[in-house]
Amino acid sequence: MITRLRSCWSAIRYLAVGAASSMLAWFVLVGMLFVLLMCPFGVGIPALPIALQLIRRPVNFERRRAARLLDEPIPEPYRSGNPVTDPASRRDLGWLVFHGATGFVVGIFAIALPLGGLRQIVTAFIWPAFPGGVESSLGFVVTSWPLAALSAITGAGMIALIFLYPRVARWQASIARRLLAPAPGVVLTDRVVELAASRAAALEAHGAELRRLERDLHDGTQARIAAVVLQLGIADSLFDKDPRRARELLGKAQDTATGALAELRTVVRSIHPPLLTDRGLDGAVTALADRCPVPCTVDVRSHSRRPAAVEAAAYFVVAEMLANITKHSGAEHAWITLDGTADTLLIEIRDDGHGGADETGGSGLSGIRKRAEAFDGTLKLSSPAGGPTVLKVELPCGS
Fold it and tell me: Are 328 and 291 in contact (CB under 8 A)?
């Protein structure tokens, strides 16, 4: 019962605020009508985009109220550009008309009904103190005990109607969500654009990765192997004439081959670290933290294995961020948290440095964002001046 009374009180507040916002909606509609009437005279044309931009403030207020009541977010449907051509502006105007027509009436009834019921009950008890009787809130005069009983019963019924208020409030919020949320076609279009952008970023990142591998193999490993071949050839030609010189060249060739093998292993690790296969993401990230010059604390809250591509992306995200912390943050300590469910991997990296990290500053953060978006993931960065810097990456693991 206490829970139901709390929900009723919350609904009364919602509907009462809706009555006030309904009056504001009428003021806004009158202002918009004035701007539209001025358009044929040329005065309202430049003011129309500004007016449409301004009405988004009360609309956003109502969007947040409805989202809190329904306990689900209502995303803003606005696009960058001219508000006149934005489909969301027409939906805003539609909500203003609907809310202006219904919000005030519903809100006033929500307030007046329990107050009227309370007056009915009070009238049933105080009428004997007045010689001519007392007029009830429903208009009839209570002059006898039968009428007093009728007044009390109707009053109790009016008060009991407040238990329907949560449904009325949810109805009003549902209409607001339907009108103020992005249209289904708009959501699909935006999603297609977002996926096309993430696909282009993934292709760009893949191309850059291939070019890096080609450069590393061509300038490093290939050059060393060519030097080994040359040194072996010279040693072979000098073996009979100058065995000592030939042995020196064989030693240099062995050293060069060892260096080429080390470089080749580095290239292989940059494609897919063997640690991920041998020890999983937990062990690979722990190894990264152990090698980092800045002391790191690793907190693994989810030990389930993810797809290989997701684990590789997570590994490189941590590696790039630890490199940034080492080079730019001035931190004395860093914390790495791996969390999530079977369908989602959450990575949080925090440091106690001086903050001020910026994706546009060439710190590799833009590359981390592209890598996350390639998996339809998200990246959130908080790095105020003075610190701390917190990076949160969410990678979906579904098929």
Answer: no
How far is it, in rounded angstroms, from Cα 332 to Cα 71?
41
DSSP track, 58-114 = HHHHHHHHHHHHHTS-------SS-TTT-HHHHHHHHHHHHHHHHHHHHHHHHHHHH
Q: How many CB atoms lie within 10 A of CB 65?
A: 20
Quote the strand ranges of 119-258, DSSP E.
134-135, 141-142
Q: What is the pTM of this model?
A: 0.50
Q: Cα separation of 152 and 164, whole Å?
A: 20
In 3-state terms, what secondary structure has residue 386? Answer: coil
- Angle formed at CA 289 by CA 286 and CA 292, multiple of 5 degrees: 155
Q: Which amino acid is at 198?
A: S
Question: Which burial class, exposed, middle or buried, applies to 26 when counting CB atoms under 10 A from its CB (0-12, 13-18, 19+)?
Answer: middle
Distance, first Cα to last Cα, the chain: 45
Which amino acid belongs to residue 113? L
Give the C-alpha separation, 231 to 252, whole Å: 8
Please report the pLDDT score of residue 213 as a whole number: 65
Rounded distance between C-alpha atoms, residue 93 and residue 96, angstroms: 5
Q: Give Dmax over CA atoms of the chain in angstroms.
A: 140
The lowest-confidence range among 76-90, 202-216, 310-324, 351-365 is 202-216
Tens-place pLDDT, residues 38-54: 888 777 788 888 888 88
User: Before 73, cis peptide (omega within 30)?
Assistant: no
Q: What is the pLDDT of residues 118-172, one digit of tens each?
A: 988 988 888 888 887 888 888 888 888 888 898 889 888 888 888 888 899 899 8
Number of H-type helices and E-type strands within the chain = 12, 7
Which has the closest alpha carbon to 207: 393, 374, 392, 13?
374
Q: Compute the half-sphere exposure of residue 32: CA atoms within 13 Å on the CB side of its CA.
A: 21
Q: Among residues 202, 178, 190, 253, which one has the least CA distance to residue 374? A: 202
